[in-house]
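Dear colleague,

Thank you for sharing your sequence with our group. We've completed the structure prediction you requested, and as agreed, I am returning the results in plain text so they can be pasted directly into your records. Please verify that the sequence below matches your submission; if there's any discrepancy, let me know and we will rerun it promptly.
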Amino acid sequence: MAEKIKYVNSTQEFDDILGKEKLVLVDFWATWCAPCRMIAPVIEKLSEQYDGKITVAKVDVDQQQELSIRYGIQSIPTVILFKDGKIAAKEIGVKPLASFTKMVDSHIA
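Please find the predicted structure tokens below.
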């Protein structure tokens, strides 16, 4: 299931994804973060549910500190929906699947 999720390994890779894809849902997380592990199945479900409609990516805040700073990530998990490379919506903390589907559905043209 998780093979649909792109794990970002560099700021260049992140910028490339934002530049190529219309809608990108990004989960800012860390391996030590229990709430991040709690929403991981939700993020996987979203990647399945919206396969072909949005790109789902994960950014490990410990490995990609520059991206965390760039987007002002102060609490994790933080999930940001980018539309055309710009922030369209943001959710912080553990939320149910319905919160994220509402966020995505409101931006799919």
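Summary note from our side: The chain has a mean pLDDT of 94.

Kind regards,
the structure core
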